[in-house]
């Protein structure tokens, strides 16, 4: 029987919508789309990465184990400002990536990040 571990960060939408921050299953860590607090896209990106990093750590993984990342932004022109943070987070182990311009759950959010990592 496969083991599934669910990780909650206590985010405001987890209980309201019915999901958890991350699920460890089948040798992978699947991190839900994650937003962060702050006024600017850079502040929100930094905060989202911190939340994701904490979930990865709890699962026994790190950004170095990431294999796929998806970025969702309501304004694609803001994405470039986040590149230095993303490059720093993934370093010499970049995952495959996709950026999609779309609406997010609340207009205050400037970026949402979803990630999949392989358990080491």
TrEMBL record:
Kindly give the InterPro entries that the UniProt entry links to this protein.
RutC-like_sf (IPR035959), YjgF/YER057c/UK114 (IPR006175)
* Coiled-coil spans in chain: none
What is an example of a Pfam family matching this protein? Ribonuc_L-PSP
Query: The organism sits in which domain of life?
Result: Bacteria
Protein known as: Enamine deaminase RidA, house cleaning of reactive enamine intermediates, YjgF/YER057c/UK114 family
